[in-house]
Amino acid sequence: MAEAEEQETGSLEESTDESEEEESEEEPKLKYERLSNGVTEILQKDAASCMTVHDKFLALGTHYGKVYLLDVQGNITQKFDVSPVKINQISLDESGEHMGVCSEDGKVQVFGLYSGEEFHETFDCPIKIIAVHPHFVRSSCKQFVTGGKKLLLFERSWMNRWKSAILHEGEGNIRSVKWRGHLIAWANNMGVKIFDIISKQRITNVPRDDISLRPDMYPCSLCWKDNVTLIIGWGTSVKICSVKERHASEMRDLPSRYVEIVSQFETEFYISGLAPLCDQLVVLSYVKEISEKTEREYCARPRLDIIQPLSETCEEISSDALTVRGFQENECRDYHLEYSEGESLFYIVSPRDVVVAKERDQDDHIDWLLEKKKYEEALMAAEISQKNIKRHKILDIGLAYINHLVERGDYDIAARKCQKILGKNAALWEYEVYKFKEIGQLKAISPYLPRGDPVLKPLIYEMILHEFLESDYEGFATLIREWPGDLYNNSVIVQAVRDHLKKDSQNKTLLKTLAELYTYDKNYGNALEIYLTLRHKDVFQLIHKHNLFSSIKDKIVLLMDFDSEKAVDMLLDNEDKISIKKVVEELEDRPELQHVYLHKLFKRDHHKGQRYHEKQISLYAEYDRPNLLPFLRDSTHCPLEKALEICQQRNFVEETVYLLSRMGNSRSALKMIMEELHDVDKAIEFAKEQDDGELWEDLILYSIDKPPFITGLLNNIGTHVDPILLIHRIKEGMEIPNLRDSLVKILQDYNLQILLREGCKKILVADSLSLLKKMHRTQMKGVLVDEENICESCLSPILPSDAAKPFSVVVFHCRHMFHKECLPMPSMNSAAQFCNICSAKNRGPGSAILEMKK
């Protein structure tokens, strides 16, 4: 037995079957540990018979009649020798200051732990139960009950004497009692009763279900969940009873309270103890199983289950099998379940062992997750409850997670997690980088290295860059682009790249990366040279960003060869840094590029490059004839003689025609159109533009012996020249294509002109009439004449100050006013009067519109 005990560990988190435990992924709800220290010493020589739990201490009774007071760690604080035989029950009041003890030899003691008051009595039969009033410390509550063959209530009277009263008898031994508030619940051989200590009435009787079980071997378990809820466990049955107040109208001779069974269900095993856990139940079960080999029944390990009661059934939340010492020899009556309401602690008491069950806290939850290698969930749980966890640190869990991922070969995930777990701890970052180096996985961690806060030692970044440089040029280039240049020693990396270029001098990736490194090092000249060699698109960005225009003055041709559009735009945008003259000189040997530059310059501003317009004539003629004519039209600085010479040399007819017409030689231009282009429509269009009668005459003379030309003239001449001039000159008998259609068109054009003239005439007449009517209406309107108006001749007020005096006023349509006597007399030839002011200013004569007299 001793050897078996030595082999047992303190942890009791074991399931019924080891294989079940391995397969189970469900986390237990409780954790277990054996109550040791003084308890171990006691149970080596004695056996536990009962125990009572207070928030401050424990009270343990033994088979040898001893009562021990223990702290929560199991250390002995006090010892009482009560009886030479088994202690049946211990009871404590809520204050923990008074204790009641009963034993198998009939002894009953109630005494104060910190005071001298005592009660001693020895009965002639074994006393199985005792319960002191929960508020025994109060003088008005000096009561306790004992139970053997009958249930006795003891009360202390006013003379400090104890008097007893029989509450119940005649139904066998009283084997269980629980006192809560004003209610006492007890169990005998027939069932469970509840007594109201205030009304002195028994309010219920809950009969025993399975009468086949011996009540001394399978005793009833009672516990109060609160002041009105009693939980009864007996055999395999559980009942939850609620004490309720009876309505006044229903009382009559009945008790003021009654009991309602709110839930009732069966369990799989025999119940040895009950305890509440929030809205759930903790059940200690005695288990018997049948051996497969011998087919005999044997005592298995007891179980502690957490169940969720329902109205007629229950749901199992968790179930744990407990390895307690000597479980093979124990019976159902040997187990007890006691609990501490304040801390949710549950004590499983057996003769040779006391096990404490606690609700698992967040630390225990994390322990279980780590044990199951659920590191990510453990890390998340620690982060959520970081204020409540005591035994774990988020960082330790995170490091364990990283190690687990590395061991499993998930290097990328492990590296990614480093960002979150290592945070700003530079020392840990460097440690992890070296660890990844040892396993050859520096590439995995490289994307996640910190680049700002914190910054690691330059050696760390250089080590990773060298790793990529040896095996992955593209990856190396990516890191150089992404990492700030101040993370590592730039000169060391530049030298390493140059060493590699000695082996592969044309490697574009390395060259480009070297250019970027030169840029970080502000060695822009070398960087620009490499970019131009590679014809890289970033060359223009580099020039703009670092203002390298002084460095490209001798590289303009290279830039133009690379991308003429971007190069020209850049050069034109920065004329103040690289002059037009400098660019033209640099492009002197590359006229085609010179033309591209000057053409774009001309498009931006026709006058800025005027000194090069003469040169541009030859360039357009050579490389861009379609834009030559628009250039000649838009340029005001182009020498026309030079342009005409070049166009005539190259036989550019359209350009020559334009230049001749611009120089005033329209007849030669028209002749060239007719003789060189043979295009009558163009000739007609040209004649229309010039709007010169002599040109039309020349055009008619040239076309008179050419029938197709005559047709073209007939179709287009009608609106500019009288068609009769052309028709009279046509020789008789000449065949002219589509003559009839042309003549019809001339007539239609003529009719159209007549219609247009008539329409215009009608519109003009209507508008004139409308304006005349408007003028007449305006002249017919009255004109306000008041004291503020003056005579335009004598400049005195137009109205006399004395309104009674006669006066005469003349007002013209132009709104000028005169005293009649101030106007000159009308001439003999015309009786009409005119405004002197308007007539003098040549605004036209105004006739009087109003003559006022009084």
TrEMBL record:
Residues 791-839 form the RING-type domain. Plays a role in vesicle-mediated protein trafficking to lysosomal compartments including the endocytic membrane transport pathways. Signal peptide: none annotated. CHCR repeats lie at residues 568-712. It is found in: Cytoplasm, Cytosol; Early endosome membrane; Endosome membrane; Late endosome membrane. One of its GO terms (biological process) is macroautophagy. Residues 1-33 are annotated as: Disordered. The keyword Zinc applies. It is a peripheral membrane protein. One of its GO terms (molecular function) is identical protein binding. Belongs to the VPS41 family. Keywords: Autophagy, Cytoplasm, Cytoplasmic vesicle, Endosome, Golgi apparatus, Lysosome, Membrane, Metal-binding, Protein transport, Transport, Zinc, Zinc-finger. The gene is VPS41. It comes from the Eukaryota. One of its GO terms (cellular component) is Golgi apparatus. Residues 14-26 have a biased composition (Acidic residues). This is Vacuolar protein sorting-associated protein 41 homolog.
